[in-house]
Amino acid sequence: MAEKVIAANLPTAEPAAFEYELFEGDPDHLRTVVATTNHSTPWIDPTTMKLRHRIGRGLFGDVWLATHHQSNGDYEEHHEVAVKMLHTAKEDHVRAMLDKFEDLFTKCQGIEGVCWLHGVSVLNGKICIIMKFYEGSVGDKMAHLKAGKLSLPEVLRYGVDLAQGVMELHSKGILVLNLKPCNFLLDEKDRAVLGDIGIPSLLLGIPLPSSDLTRRLGTPNYMAPEQWEPDETGPISFETDSWGFGCSIVEMLTGLQPWFGMSVDEIYNSVVRRQEKPTIPIGLPPPVENILLGCFEYDFRSRPLMTDILQAFKSAQNADDSEAGWREIGSRVGKTGSLGYTKWFLSKDQLQVGDAVRSRKPSKSCKLENMDVPEGVIVGLDTDRDGFVLVRVHGIHDPLRIHVSKLERVTHGLAAGDWVRLKEEDKKHSSVGILHSIDRDGSITVGFIGMETLWKGSSSDLQMAESYCVGQFVRLKANVLTPRFKWPRKREGTWATGRISWISPNGCLIVKFPGLLTFGDESSSFMADPAELEMVTFDTCPGIVKKYQHLEDFHWSVRPLVIAVGLFTAMKLGAFVGKKIGRSTAKKQHEKENHSERQQQVDVGAASNPAWLPPPVANMLFREGVSAGAQ
Ligand SMILES: Nc1ncnc2c1ncn2[C@@H]1O[C@H](COP(=O)(O)OP(=O)(O)OP(=O)(O)O)[C@@H](O)[C@H]1O
């Protein structure tokens, strides 16, 4: 049977190549790696391995069927094993990966629901992960079915197996990052186990050989938005696996791989830039449908954890009519609470009596004002109404009855979601980030630009930082000469001011520049490090000129519009002034004519008067003349 599956899995088998692969390597090189690596338990002597057939070729390397030969004088055994041979890496990277593998190996011991790991070896400078050989995968099973998809009860059963396996790995701090039906292996009892565990995690932080692979830490069709550039718009976290899990379930239910037929760049544009989600079949049991909707939340903090997924699948499995309602394919919109948080987001922190709390601000707002509870303490749980707690607020006699979704826990002055700054800067990453969690003992996790995973530390390492939200205007601080990310300049050469359009969970700001006119492919969105920015508001702009310049940041058309209005006004004014001048010239002309007429009359009247007569006298004469003329 094993041979049958192997044959079916042989897309590009190279039967003769393995001997070459195994023995061509420089034994001294191997000995160096072996000798300098701490390989107490997982290390397998490469000379005991014999590669037989290549089963498949994946993004991270090839999988081979091999024989592992073991003997200790008394006995001699040959085991059929699967060998994942990773791509060639530099010697110091090999060492780093072997150390990481050892940690993974130790943590995986005794975990059910994940592929059995025998150990690790190095052949030809390539790391080989040696695992139990399984008869096939969920992907293989689907490929052999006529419709290419599984029944709902089967999906739920495998889903429960897998969620349990992933949950166990998560409990040991291991991220899978490559969940997909081909990596769900099937054991003798038709239970799904996770294959290929943790390989992207082994590669985290290690430069990949091909530039094409550098931004991929998984299989593109199953990758979560934050997985593409985890140090820039990440970090990756446990909920990153929830996205991959959701993609796999959708594929198992429909037989269609998410983003099928699209190139890597097209998938990147759909998932990361346009924030699109895989299509979810409609008519699924409500717990499964809700969980899938949650799995495809763009911000991973809003997604369910594996324990939520397991619970949902179990409850759908127990429901009698699980398959009755599943009909056709369509898309749905996720449900969020009144403040814009999903129930998965809110369920990550369970409030307890004695917790200090404050009102939760709406998810897309910076404003803390008008809070019902600026500061309070939970003094009891309302047993009559589910989800309500009693909060004692300073200055109010009776405790307030408030729903937990409207409150957030404050520990050592910090609450999840706060903007924080590291007291001691670390050059490797930004000093400003977003707090993801704070335990009651003060241990924290923070998302920082420059880190692929969450930073762990203590609340005493942090201080509050200025918070940013979508819609605010920002520009680079004057002392920033070389920003972390590219930042556009105005025509005059000064840094442009932009508007925040999105905030990644690590605090990376996606900034648009409505004040700059862009052409063709020119991108209008830029990433920015909050540590390098300052806010721009009308109040902070000194003087009328700066205020007007800020007005220009709102839209590129403000300047031409102002120029047009200016020109129009100038023309109108010109015309008006022209008319006025014309009128006054005509008037003056008229007056001049009148005057010369009068003058003539005066001259006539004054003809007998000498020219040296003083003006009052002359005027008197003039008046007399006018009156004489008028008479
Ligand atoms: N332990 C194993 N036993 C039997 N078959 C395995 C085992 N591990 C992997 N396979 C099979 O080998 C084939 C190739 O696996 P591989 O994981 O290399 O491919 P991939 O999942 O497409 O790529 P990658 O994981 O590198 O992104 C798959 O069909 C997989 O089911």
TrEMBL record:
Top-level taxonomic group: Eukaryota
Residue span of region Disordered: 584-614
TM spans (from-to): 556-578
Residues covered by the Protein kinase domain: 49-314
Pfam family, one: PK_Tyr_Ser-Thr
Keyword line: ATP-binding, Membrane, Metal-binding, Nucleotide-binding, Repeat, Transferase, Transmembrane, Transmembrane helix, Ubl conjugation pathway, Zinc, Zinc-finger
GO molecular function, one term: transferase activity
Keyword Isomerase annotated: no
Pathway: Protein modification; protein ubiquitination
Compositional bias of kind Basic and acidic residues: 588-600
Residues annotated to bind ATP: K84
Protein name: Protein kinase domain-containing protein
Organism annotation: Eucalyptus globulus
